[in-house]
Amino acid sequence: MALSDIFKKKKEGARFERNLKEKEEVKKESAKEPAPSKEEKKPKSAVKKSAFSSAVLIAPHVTEKATALGGQAAYIFKVRKKANKPMVTRAIKEAYGIYPRKVAIVNSPTKRRFVRGKRGVKSGFKKAIVYLKKGDKIEV
Protein backbone atom coordinates (compact mmCIF):
# COMPACT_ATOMS: atom_id res chain seq x y z
CA MET A 1 0.00 0.00 0.00
CA ALA A 2 2.71 2.47 0.93
CA LEU A 3 4.61 1.90 -2.31
CA SER A 4 1.55 2.40 -4.48
CA ASP A 5 0.80 5.69 -2.67
CA ILE A 6 4.32 6.94 -3.41
CA PHE A 7 3.94 6.18 -7.12
CA LYS A 8 0.54 7.88 -7.24
CA LYS A 9 1.96 11.04 -5.70
CA LYS A 10 4.78 11.09 -8.26
CA LYS A 11 2.28 10.78 -11.13
CA GLU A 12 0.11 13.57 -9.75
CA GLY A 13 3.14 15.82 -9.31
CA ALA A 14 4.28 15.19 -12.88
CA ARG A 15 0.79 15.95 -14.20
CA PHE A 16 0.71 19.18 -12.20
CA GLU A 17 4.08 20.26 -13.64
CA ARG A 18 2.91 19.47 -17.18
CA ASN A 19 -0.19 21.59 -16.72
CA LEU A 20 1.93 24.50 -15.45
CA LYS A 21 4.22 24.27 -18.49
CA GLU A 22 1.23 24.24 -20.85
CA LYS A 23 -0.24 27.31 -19.16
CA GLU A 24 3.10 29.15 -19.44
CA GLU A 25 3.30 28.33 -23.17
CA VAL A 26 -0.21 29.64 -23.72
CA LYS A 27 0.67 32.86 -21.88
CA LYS A 28 3.79 33.34 -24.03
CA GLU A 29 1.79 32.83 -27.24
CA SER A 30 -0.93 35.25 -26.15
CA ALA A 31 1.70 37.84 -25.14
CA LYS A 32 3.14 37.76 -28.69
CA GLU A 33 -0.19 38.70 -30.28
CA PRO A 34 -1.00 42.42 -30.13
CA ALA A 35 -4.04 43.33 -28.07
CA PRO A 36 -6.97 44.70 -30.10
CA SER A 37 -7.42 48.44 -29.84
CA LYS A 38 -10.57 49.99 -28.42
CA GLU A 39 -11.87 50.74 -31.91
CA GLU A 40 -11.51 47.11 -33.06
CA LYS A 41 -13.48 45.62 -30.19
CA LYS A 42 -16.85 44.13 -31.04
CA PRO A 43 -19.83 46.31 -30.12
CA LYS A 44 -21.97 45.13 -27.27
CA SER A 45 -25.36 43.69 -28.12
CA ALA A 46 -28.48 45.82 -27.84
CA VAL A 47 -29.51 43.88 -24.73
CA LYS A 48 -28.84 45.83 -21.54
CA LYS A 49 -29.28 43.55 -18.58
CA SER A 50 -30.19 45.57 -15.53
CA ALA A 51 -30.47 44.08 -12.08
CA PHE A 52 -34.25 44.16 -12.22
CA SER A 53 -34.62 42.58 -15.65
CA SER A 54 -32.16 39.79 -14.84
CA ALA A 55 -34.08 39.15 -11.61
CA VAL A 56 -37.38 38.75 -13.46
CA LEU A 57 -36.47 37.23 -16.83
CA ILE A 58 -34.69 33.87 -16.61
CA ALA A 59 -34.23 32.99 -20.28
CA PRO A 60 -36.03 32.92 -23.60
CA HIS A 61 -38.19 29.81 -23.96
CA VAL A 62 -37.20 28.37 -27.34
CA THR A 63 -39.58 25.75 -28.73
CA GLU A 64 -41.29 25.10 -32.05
CA LYS A 65 -44.40 26.93 -30.88
CA ALA A 66 -42.31 29.87 -29.64
CA THR A 67 -40.52 30.24 -32.97
CA ALA A 68 -43.86 30.12 -34.81
CA LEU A 69 -45.16 32.92 -32.56
CA GLY A 70 -42.02 34.92 -33.33
CA GLY A 71 -43.43 35.63 -36.79
CA GLN A 72 -46.47 37.23 -35.15
CA ALA A 73 -44.30 39.55 -32.99
CA ALA A 74 -44.82 37.43 -29.86
CA TYR A 75 -41.93 36.13 -27.76
CA ILE A 76 -41.89 33.67 -24.87
CA PHE A 77 -39.66 34.02 -21.81
CA LYS A 78 -39.23 31.90 -18.70
CA VAL A 79 -39.77 34.14 -15.69
CA ARG A 80 -39.47 33.86 -11.91
CA LYS A 81 -42.34 32.23 -10.02
CA LYS A 82 -43.31 35.48 -8.25
CA ALA A 83 -43.24 37.63 -11.40
CA ASN A 84 -46.42 39.36 -12.54
CA LYS A 85 -47.43 41.23 -15.71
CA PRO A 86 -46.26 44.73 -14.67
CA MET A 87 -42.90 43.31 -13.57
CA VAL A 88 -42.43 41.50 -16.89
CA THR A 89 -43.43 44.64 -18.83
CA ARG A 90 -40.88 46.72 -16.93
CA ALA A 91 -38.16 44.07 -17.34
CA ILE A 92 -38.69 43.86 -21.12
CA LYS A 93 -38.60 47.65 -21.39
CA GLU A 94 -35.34 47.85 -19.41
CA ALA A 95 -33.64 44.92 -21.11
CA TYR A 96 -34.62 45.47 -24.74
CA GLY A 97 -35.82 49.08 -24.85
CA ILE A 98 -39.20 48.05 -26.29
CA TYR A 99 -42.57 48.61 -24.63
CA PRO A 100 -44.73 45.46 -25.05
CA ARG A 101 -48.29 45.79 -26.36
CA LYS A 102 -49.56 42.92 -24.21
CA VAL A 103 -48.21 40.37 -21.72
CA ALA A 104 -49.81 37.01 -20.95
CA ILE A 105 -48.53 34.75 -18.17
CA VAL A 106 -48.89 30.97 -18.10
CA ASN A 107 -48.04 28.87 -15.07
CA SER A 108 -46.84 25.40 -16.12
CA PRO A 109 -47.44 22.99 -13.20
CA THR A 110 -45.10 20.26 -11.98
CA LYS A 111 -45.65 16.87 -13.55
CA ARG A 112 -45.02 13.37 -12.23
CA ARG A 113 -42.85 11.14 -14.37
CA PHE A 114 -42.10 7.41 -14.26
CA VAL A 115 -38.95 6.46 -16.19
CA ARG A 116 -37.06 3.14 -16.02
CA GLY A 117 -38.74 2.06 -12.82
CA LYS A 118 -38.04 5.30 -10.97
CA ARG A 119 -40.55 7.93 -10.00
CA GLY A 120 -39.67 11.56 -10.33
CA VAL A 121 -41.02 15.04 -10.75
CA LYS A 122 -40.55 17.34 -13.70
CA SER A 123 -40.34 20.81 -12.21
CA GLY A 124 -42.87 23.39 -13.25
CA PHE A 125 -42.13 26.91 -14.39
CA LYS A 126 -43.80 30.19 -15.24
CA LYS A 127 -43.59 31.66 -18.72
CA ALA A 128 -44.58 35.03 -20.11
CA ILE A 129 -45.80 35.57 -23.66
CA VAL A 130 -44.82 39.09 -24.70
CA TYR A 131 -46.69 40.64 -27.65
CA LEU A 132 -45.05 43.57 -29.44
CA LYS A 133 -46.29 46.17 -31.90
CA LYS A 134 -45.86 45.47 -35.61
CA GLY A 135 -42.33 46.19 -36.72
CA ASP A 136 -40.77 45.73 -33.25
CA LYS A 137 -38.37 42.80 -32.86
CA ILE A 138 -36.38 41.23 -30.07
CA GLU A 139 -33.17 39.46 -31.01
CA VAL A 140 -33.03 36.36 -28.83
Could you explain the architecture of this structure?
- The chain has 140 residues and is an alpha+beta fold.
- It is 40% helix and 24% strand.
- The protein is built from 4 helices and 6 strands.
- The chain has helices at residues 2-32, 51-56, 64-70, 85-96; strands spanning 57-60, 74-79, 102-108, 111-115, 118-122, 125-131.
- Strands 1-2-6-3 form a 4-stranded antiparallel sheet, sandwiched between helices. It has a two-stranded antiparallel ribbon with strand order 4-5.
- Strand 4 and strand 5 form a beta hairpin.
Task: Estimate the helix proportion, in percent.
Answer: 40-55%
What is the name of the CATH class of the largest domain?
Alpha Beta
Question: Which CATH architecture of the largest domain is right?
Answer: 2-Layer Sandwich
Task: Provide the spatial order of strands within the biggest beta sheet.
Answer: 1-2-6-3
First and last CA, distance: 57 Å
Key structural traits:
140 residues; alpha+beta; Alpha-Beta Plaits; four-stranded antiparallel beta sheet; two-stranded antiparallel ribbon; 4 helices; extended
Summarize the structure.
The protein is α+β, with helices and mostly antiparallel strands. The chain is built from four helices and six strands, in the order H-H-E-H-E-H-E-E-E-E.
List the helices and strands and how they pair.
Elements: H1 2-32, H2 51-56, E1 57-60, H3 64-70, E2 74-79, H4 85-96, E3 102-108, E4 111-115, E5 118-122, E6 125-131
Antiparallel strand pairs: 1-2, 2-6, 3-6, 4-5
